[in-house]
Amino acid sequence: MKPMTRRMFTGALASGAALSLLPKGVLAKDIVKATNVVLVHGLFADGSCWSDVIGRLQATGLNVTSVQNPLTTLPEAVAAAKRVLDRQEGPTVLVGHSFSGMIVTEVGVHPNVSSLVYIAARAPDAGEDYTALAKTYPTPPATAGIVFDGDEGRLTEQAFLHDFAGDVAEKQAKILYAVQAPFNKALLAGKTTQAAWRSKPSFYAVSKNDRTINPDLERFMAKRMGAKTIELESSHVSMISQPKAVAALILEAAGMGTKG
Questions:
Q1: Contact status, residue 91 vs residue 33, Cβ threshold 8 Å
Q2: I want to staple 256 with a disulfide (CB 3.0 to 4.6 A). Which of 77, 105, 220, 251 is the partner?
Q3: Using CA of residue 153, residue 156, residue 162, residue 165, what is the dihedral sign?
Q4: Residue 153: pLDDT band by 50, 70, 90 thresholds?
Protein backbone atom coordinates (compact mmCIF):
# COMPACT_ATOMS: atom_id res chain seq x y z
CA MET A 1 0.00 0.00 0.00
CA LYS A 2 1.34 3.43 -0.94
CA PRO A 3 1.84 5.93 1.92
CA MET A 4 -0.78 8.65 2.22
CA THR A 5 0.25 11.92 0.60
CA ARG A 6 -0.35 15.24 2.31
CA ARG A 7 -3.19 16.03 -0.11
CA MET A 8 -4.89 12.69 0.57
CA PHE A 9 -4.38 13.23 4.32
CA THR A 10 -5.98 16.69 4.23
CA GLY A 11 -9.01 15.32 2.42
CA ALA A 12 -9.38 12.49 4.92
CA LEU A 13 -9.29 14.96 7.80
CA ALA A 14 -11.91 17.17 6.17
CA SER A 15 -14.33 14.27 5.74
CA GLY A 16 -14.12 13.37 9.43
CA ALA A 17 -14.04 16.87 10.91
CA ALA A 18 -17.76 17.10 11.64
CA LEU A 19 -17.74 13.81 13.52
CA SER A 20 -14.83 14.88 15.71
CA LEU A 21 -16.81 17.94 16.84
CA LEU A 22 -19.48 15.78 18.45
CA PRO A 23 -19.32 15.66 22.28
CA LYS A 24 -18.87 11.91 22.49
CA GLY A 25 -16.10 9.32 22.58
CA VAL A 26 -13.94 9.06 19.49
CA LEU A 27 -14.93 6.24 17.14
CA ALA A 28 -12.47 4.11 15.19
CA LYS A 29 -13.93 5.29 11.88
CA ASP A 30 -12.97 8.88 12.76
CA ILE A 31 -9.28 8.08 13.04
CA VAL A 32 -6.79 8.59 10.22
CA LYS A 33 -3.95 6.05 10.41
CA ALA A 34 -0.84 7.97 11.38
CA THR A 35 2.78 7.44 10.34
CA ASN A 36 4.32 9.84 12.88
CA VAL A 37 4.11 10.74 16.55
CA VAL A 38 5.35 14.03 18.00
CA LEU A 39 5.75 14.16 21.79
CA VAL A 40 5.98 17.35 23.85
CA HIS A 41 7.11 17.47 27.49
CA GLY A 42 5.85 19.81 30.18
CA LEU A 43 7.38 21.60 33.15
CA PHE A 44 10.10 20.06 35.33
CA ALA A 45 11.20 17.68 32.54
CA ASP A 46 12.92 17.42 29.17
CA GLY A 47 12.36 15.38 26.02
CA SER A 48 13.93 12.25 27.51
CA CYS A 49 10.94 11.77 29.83
CA TRP A 50 9.25 9.96 26.92
CA SER A 51 12.06 7.40 26.47
CA ASP A 52 10.12 4.32 27.59
CA VAL A 53 7.16 5.30 25.42
CA ILE A 54 9.29 6.07 22.36
CA GLY A 55 10.75 2.56 22.14
CA ARG A 56 7.30 1.00 22.21
CA LEU A 57 6.04 3.29 19.45
CA GLN A 58 9.11 2.80 17.27
CA ALA A 59 8.67 -0.98 17.55
CA THR A 60 5.41 -0.62 15.61
CA GLY A 61 7.10 1.26 12.75
CA LEU A 62 6.02 4.76 13.72
CA ASN A 63 8.37 7.69 13.18
CA VAL A 64 8.72 9.38 16.59
CA THR A 65 10.13 12.79 17.55
CA SER A 66 10.36 14.24 21.07
CA VAL A 67 10.34 18.03 21.05
CA GLN A 68 12.76 19.86 23.32
CA ASN A 69 10.35 22.41 24.75
CA PRO A 70 12.27 25.65 25.54
CA LEU A 71 9.99 26.43 28.53
CA THR A 72 10.46 30.16 27.95
CA THR A 73 7.20 31.64 26.64
CA LEU A 74 4.13 29.97 25.19
CA PRO A 75 4.69 31.45 21.68
CA GLU A 76 8.30 30.19 21.66
CA ALA A 77 7.23 26.75 22.90
CA VAL A 78 4.52 26.58 20.24
CA ALA A 79 7.04 27.61 17.58
CA ALA A 80 9.41 24.81 18.63
CA ALA A 81 6.63 22.24 18.26
CA LYS A 82 5.50 23.73 14.94
CA ARG A 83 8.99 23.40 13.48
CA VAL A 84 8.93 19.69 14.26
CA LEU A 85 5.40 19.27 12.86
CA ASP A 86 6.45 21.03 9.65
CA ARG A 87 9.03 18.30 9.07
CA GLN A 88 6.57 15.42 9.34
CA GLU A 89 5.44 13.61 6.20
CA GLY A 90 1.86 12.41 6.53
CA PRO A 91 -0.61 12.08 9.42
CA THR A 92 0.86 12.81 12.84
CA VAL A 93 -0.36 12.17 16.37
CA LEU A 94 0.52 15.13 18.62
CA VAL A 95 0.98 14.19 22.28
CA GLY A 96 1.44 16.49 25.25
CA HIS A 97 2.10 15.97 28.94
CA SER A 98 1.14 18.39 31.69
CA PHE A 99 1.76 22.05 30.70
CA SER A 100 2.41 21.08 27.08
CA GLY A 101 -1.29 20.40 26.71
CA MET A 102 -1.35 24.17 26.13
CA ILE A 103 1.02 23.66 23.19
CA VAL A 104 -1.00 20.75 21.80
CA THR A 105 -4.19 22.78 22.08
CA GLU A 106 -2.65 25.73 20.22
CA VAL A 107 -0.52 24.08 17.50
CA GLY A 108 -2.71 21.00 17.09
CA VAL A 109 -4.62 22.76 14.31
CA HIS A 110 -1.52 22.18 12.14
CA PRO A 111 -2.57 20.35 8.92
CA ASN A 112 -0.19 17.46 9.63
CA VAL A 113 -1.91 16.64 12.92
CA SER A 114 -4.45 13.83 12.67
CA SER A 115 -5.26 13.39 16.38
CA LEU A 116 -4.34 14.72 19.80
CA VAL A 117 -3.34 12.90 22.98
CA TYR A 118 -3.28 14.57 26.38
CA ILE A 119 -1.37 12.85 29.20
CA ALA A 120 -2.46 14.40 32.52
CA ALA A 121 -2.34 17.64 30.58
CA ARG A 122 -3.81 21.11 30.47
CA ALA A 123 -6.52 21.45 27.83
CA PRO A 124 -7.85 25.01 27.83
CA ASP A 125 -10.41 26.42 25.45
CA ALA A 126 -9.40 29.24 23.13
CA GLY A 127 -8.60 32.35 25.16
CA GLU A 128 -9.42 30.63 28.44
CA ASP A 129 -7.55 31.60 31.60
CA TYR A 130 -6.25 28.17 32.67
CA THR A 131 -5.05 29.46 36.04
CA ALA A 132 -8.54 30.72 36.85
CA LEU A 133 -10.03 27.40 35.74
CA ALA A 134 -7.59 25.45 37.92
CA LYS A 135 -8.51 27.57 40.94
CA THR A 136 -12.06 26.21 40.80
CA TYR A 137 -10.59 22.89 42.02
CA PRO A 138 -8.55 22.15 45.17
CA THR A 139 -4.90 23.17 44.73
CA PRO A 140 -2.66 20.12 44.20
CA PRO A 141 0.28 19.66 46.64
CA ALA A 142 3.04 20.16 44.04
CA THR A 143 2.10 23.82 43.63
CA ALA A 144 3.59 24.61 47.04
CA GLY A 145 6.87 23.04 45.93
CA ILE A 146 7.56 25.45 43.07
CA VAL A 147 10.44 27.80 43.87
CA PHE A 148 11.86 30.67 41.82
CA ASP A 149 15.33 32.06 41.32
CA GLY A 150 14.37 35.37 39.76
CA ASP A 151 12.16 34.42 36.81
CA GLU A 152 13.38 30.81 36.69
CA GLY A 153 11.14 28.22 38.34
CA ARG A 154 11.64 24.59 39.40
CA LEU A 155 10.34 22.03 41.87
CA THR A 156 12.06 21.33 45.15
CA GLU A 157 13.44 17.82 45.52
CA GLN A 158 10.79 16.92 48.10
CA ALA A 159 7.95 18.04 45.83
CA PHE A 160 9.51 16.38 42.78
CA LEU A 161 9.93 13.00 44.46
CA HIS A 162 6.58 12.91 46.26
CA ASP A 163 4.17 15.15 44.33
CA PHE A 164 5.45 14.97 40.74
CA ALA A 165 6.93 11.47 40.39
CA GLY A 166 5.48 9.77 43.45
CA ASP A 167 5.14 6.31 41.91
CA VAL A 168 8.57 6.26 40.27
CA ALA A 169 11.35 4.35 42.06
CA GLU A 170 13.30 6.81 44.21
CA LYS A 171 16.61 6.13 42.47
CA GLN A 172 15.10 6.91 39.07
CA ALA A 173 13.10 9.86 40.41
CA LYS A 174 16.28 11.43 41.79
CA ILE A 175 17.90 11.16 38.36
CA LEU A 176 14.86 12.81 36.79
CA TYR A 177 15.06 15.54 39.44
CA ALA A 178 18.71 16.14 38.62
CA VAL A 179 17.92 16.85 34.97
CA GLN A 180 14.68 18.79 35.40
CA ALA A 181 14.54 21.73 33.02
CA PRO A 182 13.72 25.08 34.70
CA PHE A 183 10.90 27.16 33.24
CA ASN A 184 10.54 30.91 32.80
CA LYS A 185 7.79 32.63 34.79
CA ALA A 186 6.57 34.28 31.55
CA LEU A 187 5.55 30.84 30.27
CA LEU A 188 2.70 30.68 32.78
CA ALA A 189 1.16 33.92 31.51
CA GLY A 190 0.43 32.57 28.03
CA LYS A 191 -3.07 31.87 26.77
CA THR A 192 -4.08 29.76 23.82
CA THR A 193 -5.81 31.44 20.89
CA GLN A 194 -7.15 28.19 19.43
CA ALA A 195 -8.57 24.93 20.74
CA ALA A 196 -7.46 22.14 18.41
CA TRP A 197 -9.52 19.59 20.33
CA ARG A 198 -12.65 21.18 18.88
CA SER A 199 -11.71 19.94 15.40
CA LYS A 200 -9.41 16.93 15.94
CA PRO A 201 -10.08 13.49 17.48
CA SER A 202 -8.78 13.67 21.03
CA PHE A 203 -7.63 11.19 23.67
CA TYR A 204 -6.91 11.78 27.36
CA ALA A 205 -5.10 9.80 30.07
CA VAL A 206 -6.15 10.88 33.56
CA SER A 207 -3.66 10.23 36.38
CA LYS A 208 -5.86 9.13 39.27
CA ASN A 209 -3.17 9.78 41.90
CA ASP A 210 -1.98 13.07 40.44
CA ARG A 211 -0.58 15.58 42.93
CA THR A 212 0.50 18.11 40.28
CA ILE A 213 -2.79 18.67 38.41
CA ASN A 214 -6.04 17.92 40.20
CA PRO A 215 -7.44 14.64 38.76
CA ASP A 216 -10.97 16.03 38.80
CA LEU A 217 -9.81 18.96 36.69
CA GLU A 218 -8.28 16.47 34.25
CA ARG A 219 -11.61 14.61 34.11
CA PHE A 220 -13.48 17.86 33.47
CA MET A 221 -11.21 18.84 30.58
CA ALA A 222 -11.34 15.35 29.06
CA LYS A 223 -15.14 15.27 29.25
CA ARG A 224 -15.49 18.78 27.83
CA MET A 225 -13.47 17.88 24.74
CA GLY A 226 -15.35 14.61 24.23
CA ALA A 227 -12.05 12.72 24.42
CA LYS A 228 -11.62 8.97 24.50
CA THR A 229 -10.50 8.78 28.14
CA ILE A 230 -8.60 6.25 30.23
CA GLU A 231 -7.75 6.49 33.91
CA LEU A 232 -4.42 5.23 35.22
CA GLU A 233 -3.39 4.42 38.79
CA SER A 234 -0.40 6.70 38.47
CA SER A 235 1.30 9.87 39.58
CA HIS A 236 1.55 12.88 37.28
CA VAL A 237 4.26 11.20 35.18
CA SER A 238 2.34 8.20 33.84
CA MET A 239 4.50 8.12 30.71
CA ILE A 240 7.37 7.13 33.02
CA SER A 241 5.56 4.90 35.53
CA GLN A 242 3.10 3.34 33.06
CA PRO A 243 4.68 3.65 29.60
CA LYS A 244 2.89 0.59 28.23
CA ALA A 245 -0.56 2.05 28.92
CA VAL A 246 0.42 5.47 27.60
CA ALA A 247 1.91 3.97 24.43
CA ALA A 248 -1.26 1.91 23.91
CA LEU A 249 -3.41 5.06 24.04
CA ILE A 250 -1.13 6.80 21.55
CA LEU A 251 -1.30 3.78 19.23
CA GLU A 252 -5.09 3.93 19.40
CA ALA A 253 -4.94 7.60 18.43
CA ALA A 254 -2.67 6.57 15.54
CA GLY A 255 -5.29 4.15 14.24
CA MET A 256 -3.22 1.13 15.27
CA GLY A 257 -5.50 -0.32 17.94
CA THR A 258 -3.76 -1.31 21.16
CA LYS A 259 -0.66 -2.97 19.74
CA GLY A 260 2.65 -2.87 21.62
A1: yes
A2: 251
A3: positive
A4: very high
pLDDT band at 27 (very low <50, low <70, confident <90, very high): low
69, exposed or middle or buried, with CB in 10 Å at 0-12, 13-18, 19+? buried
Q: Which residues contact 150 (CB under 8 A, 6 or more apart)?
A: none
Q: Where does 55-130 show beta strands of DSSP type E? A: 63-67, 92-97, 113-119
- Cα gap 253→247, rounded to integer Å: 10
Q: Please name the amino acid found at residue 189.
A: A
pTM over 0.85: yes
Residue 23 has pLDDT above 90, yes or no: no
Cα separation, 194 vs 172, in Å, equals: 37
